[in-house]
Each structure stands twice: as structure tokens, then as C-alpha cells.
Prior knowledge:
Oligomer: single chain
Radius of gyration: 27 Å
Low-confidence stretches: none
Distance between the termini: 63 Å
Structural class: mainly alpha
Number of domains: 1
Number of helices: 3
Shape: elongated
Strand content: under 5%
Number of strands: 0
Helix content: 40-55%
Amino acid sequence: MPNIGPMEIGIVLVIVLIIFGPKRLPELGKSLGAGMKEFKESVTGSHEDDESGAKVVAAQPEPVAAAEPADAPVSARTRP
């Protein structure tokens, strides 16, 4: 199995630069770093949010609209 040398890494970087462009590379690096950090935290089980005492607020369920009465005849129901 061949080793990956500096020439191969350079070729890959040039191809990535051509595909994504210089303006988009910092965004890609930032999102890649955040993804790697999140993956590492999930694997190791350490979370900074838990240690800082931040409270996680659960989303409140939205009220459900009233359904049509079940005893109404089919012909009386409106169609969309």
C-alpha cells in the first residue's frame, strides 16, 4: 500500500481549491472543525453544556386543531 506524500496532499488541496474557490474554504474549514469537535465530544461523552450548568429548555408542543366529528356523514365533509 503506497504512502501519501506531500505531492499527493498538494494535488488534493489544489483540486479542493478549484472546486470550492478561495472564498468558501474558510467556511468549509470552520464547519469541518465544528463537526470533528462534535464527533469527538459524542464519542468521549464529555459535553461542555452539561458542565457549565446551562439549562436545556424543552420545546412546548403546539396545540392541535380540533378534528371533525366522527359521526358526520362523508358527504358533509369538505374536500381540499
